[in-house]
Amino acid sequence: MRAVIHRTKPMIDNPNLEIVMGDIGDINSLRSAFDGADVVYHLAAAISLSKKDWPLVERVNVVGTRNVIKACLRSGVRRMVAFSSIHAISDEETVEHIDESCVLNDLSCSHAYDRSKASAEREMIKGLELGLDTVIISPTGVIGPHDYGPSFMGQGLIMMAESSMPVLVTGGFNWVDVRDVVAGAIAAEEKAASGQKYLLSGHWVSMVGITQLVQKIAGSKVSPFIIPAKLVSAIAPFIGIYYRLMNQPVLFTGMSMDTICGYHNISHNKATRDLGYNPRPFRHTIADTLAWFKQNGYI
Q1: Residue 46 contacts by C-beta under 8 Å, 6 or more apart in sequence?
Q2: How many Å apart are CA 229 and CA 23, to the nearest integer?
Q3: Quick one: which of 42, 104, 219, 247 is 20 to 30 A from 91 by CA?
Q4: Could you tell me whether strands 133-139 and 79-83 are parallel, antiparallel, or unpaired per DSSP bridges?
Q5: What CATH code is carried by the domain that includes residue 57?
Q6: Is residue 29 part of a domain?
């Protein structure tokens, strides 16, 4: 196994894991990293909750994906398993459920990250046309143990567990355990036909429901104040200023509030049928994640 890293060294110590340096903006470094590789799992991406980060997400998510594809073709890689995102798909209110047939966001999408992931997926399709055997997987909101960052949602879970979440907001999202995503990606490499796409979804759970579940598991207190996500979205710039002054992570942005107001009814039927994909119960994910945070000093 070989992991390509840019700056951050992986926290997992595995003697069977070879670490090589690479830059998604440098095709030559990618060619060197991919030398001799049979399969490439392309996960590199810049995640943003801001609508103003288009230059960053375009450079990393779109141009970077284009570079990975070129490097795979030049290095003779047999198959690429490319990670897209549920955010690449247009969340139209007229759609009863979201599956692999739904259309991608176009350039009119106001969310920079969503637009970039859709553009990156179009690059993957171009790679297929150029002869690169590609399978696309699209996870929903990924959470779970080994969240070293921690991620945006990981920070939120920590705040919930420590009773430092000042308010609760309405809305929710489809959350999937990182371990189920990994299992789905491996199954896709082994079983999927070239050109196939799979949504790896989990369970839709409201933000209030998550907070109450964390309370039961961690014994924390839940804020009695529940505010509509649309209202939070309207005042998000002021909330951001407050959290920056308090030196706390900015979780409530206009984009994050828009996100938890959409993407209902996401189907993983195709992945279950073709790959044997079966996401675990949501309670198990939260319990294991909180236990990992506590064991590693985050809580």
Answers
A1: 53, 56, 57, 59, 60, 61, 113, 116
A2: 37
A3: 42
A4: parallel
A5: 3.40.50.720
A6: yes
Number of domains comprising the chain: 1
Angle at 57 between CA 54 and CA 58, to 5 degrees: 75
In DSSP terms, which residues pair with 139 in a beta bridge?
200
Its domain, for residue 67, covers 1-139
Residue 70, domain member (yes or no): yes
Specify the pLDDT at position 231.
60
Q: CB-based burial of residue 5 (10 Å sphere; 0-12 exposed, 13-18 middle, 19+ buried)?
A: middle
pTM of the prediction?
0.88
**297 lies in some domain:** no
Please check the confidence at residue 72 and state whether its pLDDT lies above 90. yes
- The b/e string for 157-169 (b: 16+ C-beta within 10 A; e otherwise) is bbbbbeeebeebb
- List the beta strands (DSSP E) in 117-171: 133-139, 141-143, 168-169
CB atoms within 10 A of CB 50: 17
Strand partners for 174: 204
Residue that has been written with the tokens 């970077």 in this structure: 64
Residue 102 in contact with residue 118, Cβ under 8 Å? Answer: no
Q: For residue 107, what pLDDT is reported?
A: 83
Helix 152-161 and helix 207-218, axial crossing angle in degrees, nearest 10? 50
Half-sphere exposure of 272 (CA within 13 A, CB side): 10
Cis peptide before 139, with omega less than 30 degrees from 0?
no
